[in-house]
Description:
The chain is α+β, with helices and mostly antiparallel strands. The chain has two domains: 5-146, Fructose-1,6-Bisphosphatase, subunit A, domain 1 (Fructose-1,6-Bisphosphatase, Chain A, domain 1); 155-262, D-Maltodextrin-Binding Protein, domain 2, CATH 3.40.190. Helix content is 37%, strand content 28%. It has eight helices and 15 strands. The chain has helices at residues 5-31, 49-65, 96-101, 170-182, 193-201, 215-227, 240-243, 255-262, and strands spanning 38-42, 45-48, 70-73, 78-79, 87-94, 107-114, 117-125, 130-135, 140-142, 145-146, 159-162, 186-188, 207-213, 231-232, 245-250. Strands 4-3-5-6-7-8-9-10 form an eight-stranded mixed beta sheet, sandwiched between helices. A five-stranded mixed beta sheet has the order 12-11-13-15-14, sandwiched between helices. Strands 1-2 form a two-stranded antiparallel ribbon. α1 (5-31) packs antiparallel against α2 (49-65). The chain is globular and about 50 Å long. The model has no long low-confidence stretch (mean pLDDT 93).
Amino acid sequence: MTFSTTALDLRFDAAKALAHEMGLYAKRKFLDRGSFTVGFKGPQDYLTEVDSEVERRIFARLSTLFPQDGFIGEEGQGRQGAAGAPVWVVDPIDGTANFAHGAPHFCVSIAALVGNDVELGVIYDPMVGELFAARRGGGATLNGEPMHVSETTDLARATVEVGWNVRAGVGKYLGLLSRIAETGASPTRSGSGALGLAYVAAGRLDGYVETHMKAWDCLAAVAMIREAGGWVSDFLAGEGLREGNSIVAAAPGVKDELLRVAALV
Length: 265
């Protein structure tokens, strides 16, 4: 099955519209603190009814618009698509811990793959009204304006987000954090890996590293970083799509040093 540029452009437009619509829905729920309860899927792995509802709505809409496409969602919505058809990879709310705690830093993340290529990525941050988007070969934008990675060339002057997860263990995380800090770089953590990576694409951060991420957390931003002139490791290598992988993303000027220091790929 071959997909034309027009067919993929239609999906890109749909992803931008859906991310915006569902982001505004999540924002309304966020501002009405009594409208949802908070649970856990595991240690520090938050879940709210809003996550599941946003994913259900995205799945339903995309299934209607593009019935041949596959779907992988963080909260369990999924479908095997037709052979060669695009596969949607969706995180309905990235930054659920922030969302649950009342911290206004979260987003809706939507990506689409064709084979092993991330064809498009869209991330919407409803609390500040920012829509990050990228189409393979078509550049990356923030609210419709072109975005580019930073021009930093010295890791000692860089700001690097060090993502946290429980899957790789505390020791591995602390070792990574220590190595980054010892370079003189400023390590940070925002609680949303998708937005952290989008900030690399926008030049707001110089790099991002994490010992293990899931595909729905990062694929949309992977498209953005590449289109914005940055470098990102091959997340889809091996079983990355289904099992997750480590990730390193960087502006070109600090790529080699960050790769050496991170020692993840």
